[in-house]
Specification:
mainly beta, four-stranded antiparallel beta sheet, signal, Quino_amine_DH_bsu
């Protein structure tokens, strides 16, 4: 079983992580002046099937890639690939980001190359959710209920030989790899009704144990080997079983938080926690453990998007429909700063209308501003806009890759 820290432990880890990061960076600077920092943004266009790559440092183009439809973008854990999911076209394009790291224990080497559209294209009836865990990427096909499983190296090396499982009927679902097992959503017997729960299946697709209730399951994230899934009435935590044992699933109610539910989740890296939405005007900080903790933070207006900071591990950023960007301190649960960043983007209207999206790249929050044709770069320290990057078309979805390493 995974050992889950208490809030007091999180507070200590947060303080220690800040000190260790600064110390390690200073030691690295003193030891080697060949350190390189490079971040690259990948931006999906709202109107056209185009993904644009932009280098953060100077705003220069790192490639323009034409695909079939406006994509949902999902980056791999390593940041070496970005999957451009085009559900309506039944395709997933794969972009090699050109940025990779080789771990050497006390430091990592960084390699920066050209971004490129890889020849492998994943196809399906209606591919949707992409989830990575335990070194495996799972692509769920809403049109068939099938799950395609593969490794990132297979995409990059041109040896793509995926496995496919069909654990249930077609539905808007998801699958999360955990060791030799998968946690998958369970459809309702009536295809017109929402999903009913989650179950664990083995490598052959056979169920292990029963179904755990998770009405209308939607949204998932991983933090320190634990997965969390949003339900209409709570959250389900999936704990790794250890060794050859399957993961265990446990439902925890969120009824005490009042009206609302979790349907989007993001997981912390340096600290174990989850940040989820809770209805349209709140977010909730979730700390898993023997007795999970939920802290609800009300927002001034409806939420547009939010993102976590992997470097400043105690910070998250939330954009609300009034165009204000908020800095949330995960440890205190307080909104510490708020600034006016964009014009208002109403959450009324179609859910696919062009609205800003957030990604964190080093010391900046990158925010797309579709109606202005810009990416706004905001300091994670001061929350002030430092500069903008003009982007052709209608910049919409965004992911960031990169970091710092030694260059040889």
């Amino acid at each position: 079983m995974n050992s889950l820290p208490s809030l007091a432990t999180l507070l200590w880890i947060g303080a220690a992580a800040g000190g260790l990061s600064a110390g390690a960076a200073q030691a690295e600077d003193n030891k080697d002046d060949r350190g390189v920092t490079h971040h690259r943004l990948f931006i999906g266009d709202h109107a056209d099937g185009i993904v644009r790559a932009i280098d953060l440092k100077d705003g220069a183009s790192a490639g323009t890639f034409r695909i079939d439809r406006t994509p949902a973008l999902a980056r791999s854990v390593s940041g070496r690939t970005v999957l451009a999911v085009q559900g309506d076209a039944g395709k997933v394009a794969v972009i090699g980001t050109g940025i990779s790291f080789e771990d050497h224990g006390d430091h990592a080497d960084i390699t920066v190359e050209d971004a490129r559209l890889l020849p492998t294209v994943l196809t399906g009836t209606k591919p949707a959710h992409v989830v990575e865990g335990s070194g495996t990427i799972a692509l769920f096909d809403d049109g068939t209920g099938g799950v395609t499983l593969f490794g990132e190296n297979d995409l990059l090396e041109g040896a793509f030989k995926p496995r496919t499982l069909t654990p249930g009927a077609a539905h808007h679902g998801l699958a999360a790899p955990m060791g030799d097992f998968l946690v998958v959503s369970v459809p309702h017997d009536d295809p017109e009704k929402p999903r009913v729960g989650l179950k664990v299946i083995d490598a052959q697709g056979k169920p292990v144990g029963g179904v755990v209730d998770c009405p209308a399951v939607h949204g998932q994230a991983q933090s320190a080997r634990v997965f969390a899934f949003g339900c209409k009435d709570g959250v389900v935590f999936a704990q790794p079983g250890g060794g050859s044992k399957p993961p265990t699933l446990r439902h925890v109610s969120t009824a005490a938080l009042g009206e609302g539910n979790v349907s989007t989740l993001k997981g912390g890296t340096a600290m174990q926690y989850f940040l989820g939405n809770y209805g349209p005007r709140a977010v909730v900080i979730i700390e898993p453990g023997t007795e999970p903790s939920f802290r609800k933070i009300d927002l001034p207006t409806r939420r547009v998007d939010f993102a976590l900071d992997d470097v400043k591990a105690n910070q998250a950023y939330i954009l609300t429909e009034d165009g204000r960007l908020h800095l949330l301190n995960i440890l205190s649960g307080e909104i510490e700063k708020s600034v006016q960043l964009t014009a208002p983007y109403s959450m009324d209207g179609h859910w696919r209308n062009p609205r800003p999206r957030l990604a964190v790249a080093g010391d900046h929050v990158a925010v797309t501003d579709p109606l202005k044709g810009l990416v706004r770069l905001v300091s994670t320290e001061t929350l002030k806009e430092e500069r903008t990057i003009a982007v052709a078309g209608t910049p919409y979805t965004i992911v960031a890759v990169g970091g710092s390493g030694a260059a040889h």
